[in-house]
Write a structure and sequence with these properties.
seven-stranded mixed β-sheet; alpha/beta; 6 helices; single chain; 173 residues; 7 strands
């Protein structure tokens, strides 16, 4: 199973699209690792640079993350950077399912919880711990620790625990 714990990258914006996650000019790549240096290369966000991605294992953002073109490369670029958890107010439907299909966690939280997370944690070095079985994420920074419950279907939980759709298909067929 992949690691769902570690340092958090905060992206304080709605509607981050797949072109910003991985620009279309890299869609000819077939090796996931080749996408690594280009993650969020075209992201439009004040005070953001791709140097902030280093050593991050999770992203927390606002609503409609992964909107735009449907492309698995966007998830691959996250995976190539060892980012296996995205917490958002909402996701584009296909993007969210592609995350589960790749054995990654797409966690939706209510906007009030996302607002609270940004107000408490976004300006400090924050860590996330993800408990898939209990469906709880824990954020910790500066002696503050808060739990947030999320929902995941039993099928998506199985996809995540087995490492994605390909491993699931191998185990079943």
């Amino acid at each position: 199973m992949k690691n769902f714990n570690g340092k958090v990258l905060f992206l304080d914006r709605n509607d981050i699209n797949t072109d910003e996650i991985i620009p279309a000019k890299y869609l000819t790549e077939i090796d996931k690792k080749a996408l690594k240096p280009y993650l969020l290369e075209d992201l439009k966000l004040d005070n953001f640079s791709t140097n902030k991605i280093i050593e991050k294992k999770a992203i927390i953002t606002r609503t409609n993350f992964g909107c735009g073109s449907s492309r698995e490369h966007a998830i691959w670029a996250l995976e190539a950077n060892d980012i296996n958890v995205v917490v958002a107010g909402s996701f584009a439907r296909i993007f969210r399912q592609n995350m589960f299909n790749c054995g990654m966690v797409a966690t939706e939280l209510p906007s009030e919880a996302i607002d609270e997370i940004f107000s408490i944690f976004s300006n400090v070095d924050t860590n996330i711990t993800t408990d898939i079985e209990k469906q709880i994420i824990t954020l910790s920074a500066n002696k503050i620790s808060k739990n947030y419950s999320f929902r995941i279907s039993s099928f998506d939980k199985e996809l995540v625990s087995i490492g994605g759709w390909v491993n699931y298909a191998h185990s079943k067929y």
